[in-house]
Task: structure prediction
Amino acid sequence: MFVLYWQLWDIERKRRLRSMFGHLSVVGALSWNHYILSSGSRLGSIHHHDVRVAQHHIGTLCQNKQSICSLKWSLTNQLLASGSSDGTLNIWHSDPGVNVKSQPLKTIPHSSAVKAMNWCPWQSNVLATGGGMKDGILRVWDINHEKLLQSAATNSQICSLLWLPKTSELMTGQGLPANQMKIWQYPALINSSELYGKYFSSLF
Result:
């Protein structure tokens, strides 16, 4: 058994601040909540770390035994969304000092891996999710009511998501076969433009 670690860097001074240990598998997703860094692993666990203290690991969530593909704290820092490779989207309470027996507030099934997600900057209850290779559907949810507000087929894996608040649009980074970026008008999710020229999956 081996323990993987990740590093915290000061990008202005170009120096490593610290290395943190804890997971027993690949760490595939990270998200900040002030001084709390949440990390998701291939074994399905989510760890919360207080980066200010030496004993940084302060809580653990267990989504399932499937890989955590995406993690995102809400802009209000009250909710944590996690997506996994088995198509499960979970919404968790903000308490970082949790244990593995904690249950999600909400669970929303998807038909494929939840590869990307992002909270709407101007509607705190709205979350956009992107499906994996077997799905490729962009979905927008009202998390409070677990209601699907709108969806659109993108015809390829969605690797990343960005909201564009100045124009009320969404941008998706797509995988195979086209490896392009697409812009979607919100809330109708009409594909308004596409950007090509990438040789590899678009991860922004």
Notes: The chain has a mean pLDDT of 88. The two ends are 33 Å apart (CA to CA). The chain is about 0% helix and 55% strand. The first strand starts at residue 5 and ends at 10.
